[in-house]
Specification:
With about 250 residues, this protein is α/β, with parallel strands linked by helices. It contains nine helices and seven strands, in the order H-H-H-E-H-E-H-E-E-H-E-H-H-H-E-E.
Length: about 250
Amino acid sequence: MKGKKVVQEAFTELSTHYEKAVDDELNVFWGWNYQRFLDELIKRTKFQENQKILDIATGTSLIPRKIMNLKIPGINIVGQDITEKMLQKGTREISPDDINTSITLVCSDAMALPFTAQSFDLVVSGLASHHMNIPLMLSEMKRILTHGGVISIIDVGSSPLWENPILKGFARVFAFFYFLLKETPSRAWMEAMSITNLRTPEGWERELSILELQGISITKLPSKYKLLPEPLYITCNSGVYTGEKK
């Protein structure tokens, strides 16, 4: 699929400087740094002993490593990503020091996860869903969650203003040329395509409700510019799992 190839190519190129690029971009668009993003996701997510955790689009394994630093006994973290080069860098960064915590990295597609049903207690994801088919991604998240398992996401949100087709088209053009000047053509195409995947809080609630996910909570997080797409924290739980994919 063309979109997946563009994403893989863009993140392969980004793998050499991913953390710095994200830090710079978060500062420009939200007035955040990457550390603040990580702190927001960690503090808003409820971790427990002996959890099995999946990090969707783990990249260079920063989120698993941040979770590992919490020193929670018995947790097992799997970091999933579609880009081998990102995972290779992430593997080099993982420390084996904490014997109570393990991290495994898996190269796969988040829309077709290679895990059995009900195999994780918690799924986390940061700055990733706008590069994916969100309904498919959420369906896979629900499938692999245990009964009552939790989803915890921070990503770029949209607003009713940005749902206007003219403004959305302008945003795609702006994103393309902004990242073309800063990075590479593949990055420019990837970010332009991602505009289509942005969801308002109401849009996220619809997607989650269609899958009959429970305990839905969507929070706008403070950012520097109110007219630009703002960060959203999205959480819910799997409720009663039927074993059937929607």
